[in-house]
Design a protein that fits this description.
6 helices; 4 strands; alpha/beta; four-stranded parallel β-sheet
C-alpha cells in the first residue's frame, strides 16, 4: 500500500518540510548576500551542539573537549544555561529564543510512528533540531556550521578539517 494510505498526515508533514527547506534556502542565500561570504572561507565555522534536559557527565565532557579548539554554540535550556559560563569558547543560546512559526506548524502535524519507546516529545525534539539550526544560522549570520550531537567530540579545529575538504559544501546525517 502507498505511504500516504499508511500515514494520512504525510501530506501535511511533507508540505511543512517543503516550506521549511524552501525558506531555509532563501534564508541562507540572504545571509550569504548580506554578509558577502566568500565560498572558500573556512576560517570561521562554529561547532553547534543541541542539548536540553540535563547536565549529564558525558554532555559536560563533550562540550569541554569540543570547545578546546572550537567556538561552540550550545542550543540549550535553563538547566544548562550556566554550566559553561566560565568557558569563553562556549556560547549558550536559549532554545526558546529560536522558536518560529515553522516549528509550530511542523509540531502540529508531527506523529510519532516509531516503536523506539521514546516519548512523543523526545522524538519531536529530534526532528525540530533542524529547525533550531536554521534559526541559529539566521540569528548569527553564519553561512557554515558544523553540528554534532551532545555525545560526540571533534578533537581538532573544525576550520582546519573543513579547509582540507574544501570540496564539501554540505553534509547530512539522517
Amino acid at each position: 500500500s502507498r505511504l500516504e494510505d499508511l500515514f494520512p498526515e504525510i501530506d501535511n508533514i511533507k508540505t511543512s518540510v517543503k516550506k521549511c527547506l524552501h525558506s531555509y534556502k532563501n534564508s541562507i542565500n540572504d545571509v550569504i548576500i548580506k554578509n558577502d561570504v566568500i565560498e572558500s572561507d573556512y576560517s570561521n565555522i562554529p561547532l553547534v551542539i543541541h542539548h536540553t534536559g540535563g547536565n549529564q557527565d558525558y554532555f559536560i565532557k563533550c562540550v569541554e573537549w569540543n570547545s578546546k579548539k572550537n567556538k561552540v554554540y550550545l542550543i540549550g535550556d535553563n538547566v544548562n544555561k550556566k554550566t559553561f559560563k566560565k568557558n569563553k569558547n562556549v556560547e549558550h543560546i536559549d532554545i526558546k529564543s529560536l522558536h518560529s512559526k515553522e516549528i509550530e506548524e511542523f509540531s502540529k502535524y508531527f506523529v510519532n510512528y516509531g516503536n523506539s519507546g521514546n516519548s512523543h516529545e523526545f522524538e519531536l525534539g529530534c526532528f525540530l533540531r533542524v529547525f533550531y539550526l536554521k534559526q541559529l544560522i539566521k540569528k548569527t549570520g553564519y553561512s557554515r556550521i558544523f553540528y554534532v550531537d551532545s555525545d560526540c567530540i571533534v578533537l581538532d579545529d573544525i576550520n582546519v578539517i573543513m579547509g582540507e575538504m574544501s570540496n564539501v559544501k554540505i553534509g547530512y546525517s539522517i
